[in-house]
Amino acid sequence: MQLRKVIPQPRQIKPETAKERVTQAGPAKVEATKERASPWKLGGLTAMQLGKRVYEEFDEDEVPTRSAALSYYFMSALIPMLFFLITCLGLFTKSHDLRHSLLSYIQEFMPPDGFTVLMRTLREVATHSSGLKLVLGLVLALWSGSGGMRSIMDALNRCYHVGGGRPLWKRVLLSMALTAAISGLTILALVIVLYGGAIAQFVGDHTGLSNVTILLWKGVQWPLALFFVVFSFALIYYWAPDADQQWAWITPGSLIGVLLWIGASIGFRVYLHYFNSYGKTYGSLGAVIVLLLWLYITGMAILVGGEINAEIENAAARRGHPEAKEEGEKAA
């Protein structure tokens, strides 16, 4: 009987990832890699490469569709929240100038037709307002805002390509906590803008440095208010995805998201100033459509910032950063 010679097959060895090679190289290599992998180094990508990756993920992660869903939640929460803020200003101060200033700053960013709809609705609500309706308005704003926050959480999970594994009660509580935190930071930014001059004057009068204090305040007022807005974005990007995140006060995604929102809002205002045809197309609903489009732009700016952070972290993981996550990973 002829024996068949069996040739042993070479064992298949799973190739090491860049992260594993760095880890096996020792603690010194790990620490050196951590130092090199600041989010502001873009994960080793150039700005052009990062922009290309974000563009490729834009449609794959359904950013336009999810931005449209966010505009609905923003719309349902906007009126109750503004009504609550304006009523609170009326409770704590009798000055109509502060309320006028608040609306003036809002008008700077909103399209004119959208602001007209907002003001008309606020007047109608204020006409039939009461203490109970103020409380109900706050509850409605918090619930509607938390619905929008849950939609942001789902969208950012898509950006990181992770499934939502949180139980429902945890998602609801987290979304409400984030909504309350973002609302608080927004109020702080408004206080800085509306009351900052009076606070600087008060401090200056009691320290004998009135002119110096006011001059310094004028220099830091708007950067400080912008910081609170960027910090709000950073909070969303840290807590909303169902994945472990490294905390950073300001990330590339949060900064670019805020600047994109400001730039797009200004660009939309300019477009409407010269080419506004929504009234001809939609009739009396044209102003509502304009407001929805502006809220759509706002949602898209938030999601694009999340895409930027996700792509930076994925690129850092591919280059061996031990604390970065590759696409689809919830923890490093």
How are the elements arranged and paired?
Layout: H1 18-24, H2 27-36, H3 47-60, H4 63-92, H5 96-109, H6 112-127, H7 131-160, H8 168-207, H9 210-239, H10 252-275, H11 278-282, H12 286-318
Helix pairs in contact: 3-12, 4-7, 4-12, 6-12, 7-8, 7-12, 8-9, 9-10, 10-12
Description of the structure:
The structure is a single chain. This protein has 332 residues and is mostly helical. It has one domain. It is 76% helix and 0% strand. Helix 6 crosses helix 12. The radius of gyration is 25 Å and the shape is globular. The protein starts with 17 loop residues before the first helix and ends in a 14-residue tail after the last helix. About 2% of the residues have low confidence.
Please report the number of helical segments: 12
Rg measurement, Å = 25 Å
Outline the low-pLDDT stretches: 11-15
Instruction: Note the main sheet.
Output: none
Q: What is the domain tally?
A: 1
> What are the secondary-structure elements, in order, as H or E?
HHHHHHHHHHHH
Q: Tell me, what's the shape?
A: globular
Kindly estimate the percentage of residues that lie in beta strands according to DSSP.
under 5%
Broad structural category: mainly alpha
Percent helix, as a range, is over 70%
Mean pLDDT: 76
Distance between the termini: 57 Å
User: Number of DSSP strands?
Assistant: 0
